Task: structure prediction
Amino acid sequence: MSDLEAGWAARDITPPVGVWMGGYWGRPAPAQAVQDSLAARALVWRVRDQIAGVVSLDLIAVTAEMTNRIRRQISVQTGMAVSALMVCCTHSHAGPLTIPFRGMGTMDADYIQRVEEETVAAVEHAVEALVPVAMCWGKASVEIAENRRCLRVGNRAASRLSGETVSHWAHVLRFETAEGDLASLVQHACHPVVLGADNVDISAEYPGVAVREIKAATGGFAMFVNGACGDINPVHTNADYAQVEVIGRMLAASVLDAETVPMTVSSLASSTQPVDLPLQDPPTRSRAWVIRIRHELGSALKALSLPGQVAMQVPRAHRDWARELTRVAGRGGGGGVQPFEVQAIRLGPVRLVGLEGEIFLRYQLDLEADSETPLLVCGFANGCVGYVPTTAEFALGGYEVDEAYVVYPSVLMLAPKCEAVLRQGIAKVLEAVSD
Result:
């Protein structure tokens, strides 16, 4: 055994039927049933007087404000430093609305409070359960994904990107006690969007199936963290729950077959680095008002032909965004910046990098290629500001660049130079946790 201790715990966060769901515009109704339960899972580590941990929530995303509330409560209850807890979401598009996306309904405040309470409880229980463990790391060969920004000629994909366009592996961390109790942490980059916008059943999606299968096979604890999957989808989308099972079981089988090597952990460190990602300049005031008037009229006309609150969510979302756009354009100056947190936890030779958004895969591939020791990129960590493309991808346009930001609370899209700022922030936080 090394100097490492670990503890783990899980709490149920399945929402009630009737909550609005996150991830898609135009969903026909709030949640009508529960296909499978959702959980808040916590894995905590201690090396002598240093303690850190990661949380995985079966949710689309959480806000930075919610993350900070959770961190503060845990710091008070356990003494863990605020910078030492990483709060990740799996990004399931079949879960409740937990971030104020435009046009997807209203968040349930009571449910949000419950998630916070259960997450804190999971971390507290994990801290109480700390025991000496041995750690192993490995990479599992995984083929469940495709790059959704590929150009297609018939059934053949012609990539817009150079080099790899998907991650062909999952990172696997295993922690085993002297008594044989086992905990597994799995990281893979792929959007949980097997189920489409017509789905109104709550589900943890394919990550939930994978966790279930790993737990069943090992008799231990398992959790999933997503990677830089901003441009990565599963090979089956707009499908049914049978395909969720197929994708989840494929991932689990690969993880269970992965060969791992022992890792000596004699030190633990954590740090956060705030960065300001530049936003694009708003349109001129007159142009912003033209956009607003168009969406105001469109919303009013659709209200006459689309009865019911559900049908009006999308046009009202565009209207509300356009109103905010005139406010931003009216203040003058440039687009400003988007606050963004970069976090790193070093567990001996292994490093986890938490990034607050839908990060394009190229960031992950480059970080892994540049690292001599295992490095796991964790997306949807500590908040979610929207899509974060690389500079080259802005010129190609598409949904992630030209449209998706309208859904997010921010009014403007990130600027192409955000890549340089983000990479500098990552370098700084990795330096801060270096051994």
Notes: Residues 152-159 have pLDDT under 50 and may be disordered. The radius of gyration is 21 Å. The CA atoms of residues 265 and 348 lie 4 Å apart.
